[in-house]
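Schema walk-through. Below, the input block comes first and the output block second. Nothing else is stored per chain. Lengths vary across the set, and this one has 81 residues.
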Amino acid sequence: MQTFFVSLTSISDVKKFVDAATRCAAEIDVLSGRYVINAKSIMGLFSLDLAKPVKVEFHGTDAESETFRKDIAALIAEDGE
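--- output ---
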């Protein structure tokens, strides 16, 4: 499992993130506080507080992770900041 943070500050950011997650065969979770949401669920993501970066847990191969991270490179936040 790999973890990193993403910043989803607009509707288009959330849509881009969900589209990239949907194209990926691996399971991807988004964590915010005590909530764990499927990254492929746009409604689930909109239920979170997106004012600050959220943690992503990627459950897949290194190759899948690399492809996913390239797709969302503009959304990746540094250390949850």
